[in-house]
Known about the structure:
By secondary structure, this protein is mainly α. It has one domain (28-382). Helix content is 65%, strand content 5%. The protein is built from 15 helices and 5 strands. The strands form 2 sheets. It has a 3-stranded antiparallel β-sheet with strand order 2-1-5. Helix 2 runs parallel beside helix 10.
Amino acid sequence: MIHLLSQLAEENGLPFFRVFGYITVRAGLALAVSFLFCIFMGPRLIEYLKKLQAIQYIRNSEGKDAISLAEMHAHKKSVPTMGGLLMLGGIVLAALLLGDWSQPVLWLAMMGTIGYCAIGYADDYLKVVKKNSAGLSAKAKLVAQILLGGVFAGLYVYVFPHLVHYQYMENGVSASITGPQFLLFPFLKTMLLPLGILYAAFVILVLTSTSNAVNLTDGLDGLAAGVTISATLCFAIVAYLAGRTDAASYLIIPNVAGAGELTVLLASLTGACLGFLWFNSHPAQVFMGDTGSMMLGGLLGSVALLIKQEFLLLIVGGVFVAETLSVILQVGSYKLRQKRIFRMAPLHHHFERAGVPESKIITRFWIVSALLAFAGLVTLKIR
């Protein structure tokens, strides 16, 4: 689509179409396309999911004095799930129309997006359509995540290593590195950690952790989608800067070939999340399910890796990190001491059990996420 418009501008003397060569224009249009797609298709997908009886499965907690989530959220038992398909449709449509598919970064990011969405879909399908409450086993899910992460790492490290070029000063002397097999740290100007062959394992860790972290956060109406919007907008700005040689040099961040296309993709994700929130805001008409949450995590993790801002993801995605840590601490404490740290995990359920209204928990988590996204942007200038 982009190449066709460029040809119209050059061959037919239609200068107006040149605006589609600007990343900012395409990003704005991508947001609008994905948002309108979700608004238009949302009611139709919800009706289809209801007919399919794809009703949200609510887990039962186990262990002594465990609190039943099924009882807490009994009013949500009739709400359909797998709404992540709606977001995926908006993202794919916007990317097809407005993305430059000659850029490998776009292919890699879409692979992470669709791949992790497929894993989540398989889990949801078994639970809500086949009525298998266990869904995809934890082992099978983990193996699928690792395999997909391995394929992503193989392509990124060995097929497209030229995408990343980092130029910096070391002991007053200009130095550079090509390839993604190193790590940068927030707040530190030139410190980098070369990982070599271990970087592939790190890629798998990031993608698996991020997809699962968003999955854990998706427990209240609109929570995961709203938190994702802040993180997405932050990474959209960073990706735009990483794609510009002058900006990357000024900020001393890696210059990534074609990273501007990730800005377009992230803008489409923002539009998709906004459109999905139209139906997912409290009280929700549809849930995203593992289909949506794992897709969001796969996309965010892929982008963080592609623009070499893996540790920035820990700051910007601080809400996801806190939710994950709450589960790890809760499980570890119960197994070691037979005592729970939180009233219930993940963290949003802790506040829910404390009597905080669901809508207030969601709004406060959105606010924290927005502040963390701003803090993430600040780290670039501090470097």
